[in-house]
Amino acid sequence: MTAHRSSGPALAVVGATGAVGSVLLQILSQRADVWGDIRLIASARSAGRVLTVRAQETEVLALSEDAFDGLGAGDVALFLTPAEVSARWAPLVTARGAVVVDQSAAFREDPEVPLVVPEVNGHAVRIRPRGIVAGPDCVTAAMITALGALHAEFSLAELAVSTYQAASAAGRAGSASLRRQLSVVAGTSLGEQPGDVRRAVGEDTGPFAAPLALNVVPWSGELRADGWSSHELAVRAQTRRILQLERLPVAVTCVQVPVVNGHSLTVRARFEREVDAVQARKVLEAAPGVVLADDPAAGEFPTPADAAGTDPAWVGRVRASLDDPRSLEFFACADNLRTGAALNATRIAELVAGEFA
């Protein structure tokens, strides 16, 4: 059983049964139909499952060379896989002439692979020497549309960010771990005394560095020089690449919070020009991919619960710095599985498909 149409480029979704893959299949059913053959690919343990794509049942293929048979020039393969899987299989697909859109970290630092958010630098899709286009991680994606719009108007000079990352960024294992921990501590007084949450959860911290239930964990990634984490350095590098600001000073602190879905960030941006909150709100209101929710007097500001299941990045708490006329503070939220990964990858793939229409 396959999802097949008579015209349009073929689309292969690699990692179709994962957390991001499941969201991407929903998105395909909600957007304009530009695809011909749609094939779903996953690990051998998921092969044979039947999923619905645009109201048609489609059997999942095992990841192998045969799964890409027939793909060629004008076709697209979306990789929603760990970096090591993308690094191995993407070159095989591009050798057939198809374009790879990769959502992993495998190619984000490769100078021959554009790192793209369509609302900010969609033009970069067309220059892809290796036949690969990369998308940023879900944290960078949550802020970059707003930041890109402000940069275009005021010229970004310096950036400081703190993240509040949802458990689902670690896939289904992350969400399951948080729910499991919450079930252990629910209805108790745990969290009132030092160490009691850690003792209750024990070693079952899942993919996180410490218990996440009733807690925040100021760590994401692997240890790098001088105490920085790999994830913090990645957000820094990706922001610089997307905005084409190679020397932009960027400071990032990544924090995991007990939220299932939806990343949030506090952002302090310093610009080359003076900026006030009124100007900034006008820019953000007009920015593609951004919803401005900014009326604290009426209790209006963005939260992960607002952003979950929606396409845009939500921005609020926009305020000028009390100390620097060139600095602005704001808060941003986005659905990390949808906006931060699946939707961005889909939009990139559609830009590629448009080249061959």
Summarize the structure.
The chain has 357 residues and is α/β, with parallel strands linked by helices. 31% of the residues lie in helices and 20% in strands.
Could you please describe the fold and organization of this structure?
With 357 residues, the protein is α/β, with parallel strands linked by helices. The protein is 31% helix and 20% strand. It has helices at 19-28, 83-94, 118-121, 138-154, 171-185, 196-201, 230-243, 277-286, 304-307, 338-355, and strands at 11-14, 38-42, 50-53, 56-62, 76-79, 99-102, 132-134, 156-164, 250-253, 263-271, 290-292, 313-320, 327-334. The chain has a seven-stranded mixed β-sheet with strand order 3-4-2-1-5-6-7, sandwiched between helices. Strands 9-8-10-13-12-11 form a six-stranded mixed β-sheet. Helix 1 (19-28) packs across helix 10 (338-355) and helix 4 (138-154) crosses helix 10. Mean pLDDT is 94; it is low at 1-5.
Brief descriptors of the model:
6-stranded mixed sheet, 357 residues, disordered N terminus, globular, 31% helix, alpha/beta, 7-stranded mixed sheet
Given the helix and strand composition, which structural class is it?
Answer: alpha/beta
Shape: globular
Query: Main β-sheet: number of strands, strand sense, barrel status?
Result: 7 strands, mixed
Quaternary organization: single chain
Overall mean pLDDT:
94
Number of strands: 13
* Strand order, largest beta sheet: 3-4-2-1-5-6-7
Helix content: 25-40%
Binned strand content: 15-25%
Query: What Rg do the Cα atoms give?
Result: 21 Å
Write the layout of secondary structure elements.
Blueprint: E1 11-14, H1 19-28, E2 38-42, E3 50-53, E4 56-62, E5 76-79, H2 83-94, E6 99-102, H3 118-121, E7 132-134, H4 138-154, E8 156-164, H5 171-185, H6 196-201, H7 230-243, E9 250-253, E10 263-271, H8 277-286, E11 290-292, H9 304-307, E12 313-320, E13 327-334, H10 338-355
Parallel strand pairs: 1-2, 1-5, 2-4, 5-6, 6-7, 8-9, 11-12
Antiparallel strand pairs: 3-4, 8-10, 10-13, 12-13
